[in-house]
Give the backbone structure.
Amino acid sequence: MIPLPLALRRAAKVLLGRERYWRYDLRRKHLRLGEGYNAWNIDARTRLGPDSVVYSVGIGWDIGFDRALIRRFGCTVHAFDPTPSSIEWTRTQTLPPEFIIHEVGLAEYDGWATIEWSNKPRSFVANMPQRDGHPRVPVARLETICKELRHARIDLIKIDIEGAEYAVLDDLVRHGPWPRQLLVEFHHRLPGVGLARTKQAVSELREIGYALFAVSGTGEEFSFLHAGPQYCETERVPGFAEHPGLEDEACERSRAHAPALGSGH
């Protein structure tokens, strides 16, 4: 249940047009893993295990969600964050061996970016020289990362990249790969972004076969399941069985919009 003060704050934002209540495509039981701001909702019937491919993009200073995934499912979590302060923080922690850090950021291009905290809504700015307090860091597309790590699929990905998610999701929609579970924090609260960008991103994800099944109490963390061609041909996606016709419709949409390279798988 959403705490009353949080629910009231969200309701006020809805009235002001800065937030909305979202229609779920799937009415699913979900697990909430992690604590505080770094807790996320995942499918309660998830089939994660030791052989699963799990990406956690954006470490910050809290890996409670990642630790919970490792404890509950025994999976390896590949974490991505080039931010010097986050990397330094991880060096002070006792990390499980299943938690693997990659000091690279996720972007819609391969190359370098400057961390520009004052230039919200994007946390990364392309092709700018390093300046005091704004380090230059490596970034890569999701498809590139998968190829370099030799991963043929992604079973679950969490994306929290401070406003850069919109360009990343646009690249994902157009070129793949399409993770089975997609967890993303949308930053429409930031100046210069606005709710319309999140509406567009959600619409485009639905168009390629993603189904929204959970939104956090803040209205910012979204959880999707995918019914893509690679899953339609091999197994049914958990959750769609309770919604006759929805999975077939999602599969048809994803086949119609699948990237030419087979969504990276």
